Amino acid sequence: MKLRMAPSSYVWLLLGGLYFFIPLLATFLFSLDSNTTGKCCTLSSYGWVIHNPDFWHTLKTSLLLALETIAVSLVIFVPTIYWVHLKVPRLRPVLAFMALVPFVVPPIVLVVGLLSVYKGSPSWFYAQPWGFLVAAYVILAFPYMFFSLDAGFRAIDVHTLTEASQSLGASWSRTLLTVILPNIRAAALAGSFLALAIVMGEFTIASLAQFHTFPIFLQYVNESQAYPAAALTLMSFGITWAAMLSLLFVGRKRGQRAAFVTGAR
Amino acid sequence: MAYLELQDLHRDFGTVKALDGVEVKLEQGEFLSLLGPSGCGKTTALRLVAGFDRPDKGAIVVDGRDLTHVPPNKRDMGMVFQAYSLFPNLTAAQNVEFGLKIRGRNRVERAKRVEELLELVGLGHAGDRYPHQLSGGMQQRVALARALAIEPRVLLLDEPLSALDAKVRVQLREEIRRIQLELGITTLYVTHDQEEALSVSDHVAVMYGGKIEQMGSPGEMYSAPATPFVAEFIGTMNRLEGTVADGGVRYGETLLRIDAALGRRSGERVLVLVRPETVEVGTANGSSPDGNVLRGEVITQTFLGPVTRLKIVGTGVDLIADVPTQKALSLPVGTKVAATVPADGARLLELRDERLPEIAEEPAPAGR
Q: Global pTM?
């Protein structure tokens, strides 16, 4: 059936589009103005960003933090959620509730609490973003990881796949790595991209814990350099969009997978 | 010593006794079906053998080795599940290869074995298809090939056909039996479908309430049920409640001369078990045979193909009889008939004060 839209729909669509695009366009036009003369049109702001070593440094830091957060989250949450689905399904609502806590507790409260909890811990953990920040980010990523993975585990018959694998001689670790993980791949990727997006945009905790991450750099430029700030905003927007598009792509593949899992029944 | 022994298996789930002293002895290469209604403990027994669950008491011994506390991945049991259990991310051939990889077989050996097994189950052409590209019947064939690939000590089949169409079911069960005979593999088959169990097994064990009610060859189970439950569960059976009297059984107004009643204590309450196909039916005004005649009226006729099932109800009489369809034409609904119970074809069971279980139709299976 061909989808027909009422003419008024186009108007609303256009208004919606404008709502999103006008600020972007304005930012883009603003970013083309020269940082020195304030006149249009130059790409010097973009050049300023690209040639700023802090941009690359903080971007790298944030990306590495995101990767570490994703790795730690997957290592902790995949086996946990697998075990809960397999052995103690009655704990699933408890986990789901715990996963909502990071939404409820404001980051400012979280960071104050974490700083005091970890006070006195070794400096390689407390003074390094790879330790302290990742610990905090894993907590922030927990809801996204949990709900993505949970949906992934629900879409497969965890019990039967596990038992089939074991009856063929596979150990627990082999079952998890070669049978379960490939079949929740899309869910794990979805959770990972959401975690990436969070880490790339997290400001409060990094700022209060005094770590120099990409959002901190963004904020610094915003305060000191008006035109490059606009360029940087657009560039970070592009990075976020790239992550989002990846998510959309993975989500589509996941829909196909769900279809073939149910189609097999 | 038998090849597979289940020794006094007990398993409780809370207050429910899922298994209550199950004993099985099976020789190598034999095919045993565990048959029973939902909740009778048949799947629990199979899962204990597979190692997915542990018994509260008792032992599982295979080929002289006690496997009771061996984890499932060390037991070498091939299992085919009720729900489709192929790994969705692997092709049919890769699924079959899975267990061989774990056993560290080399690539050449694996490829050869996978090919052999896929041929064996008639899917030599479908090795590179993914599970979602296979029909339900084909998926279960691959699952069978996968289970057989590891050359298991015992093949365990947990209602593998229950999700399939009737026609595929019949076809596949015959193939399972063919392959089982060809490979001579000891097989434990769980089903709630008596026709399935009777048609493919060397032995059938009917389970109820966590116990084995009776175990025997399919022929024995059909012709000589040992308990009212087995009689009820296997095939269709008339159950006539009566009392032993004068060397026969008094059923309502009629004294049935039944061989099995000879030597029984007078006054004993018994259940007379008569298969519908052994009941002779004639018109009431026809020549009356000597004795064992129950009179009534045909209430319904059910066409079953070669035979037609008649329900006959009279004063104190309620029974069913299967007559050749041709003959049933002369006995339309409403006809007064005389039904003769054969003296030698009926079995007697002592009627204890126990309620016979209701045998409900199993719901359509759908994973777990």
A: 0.81
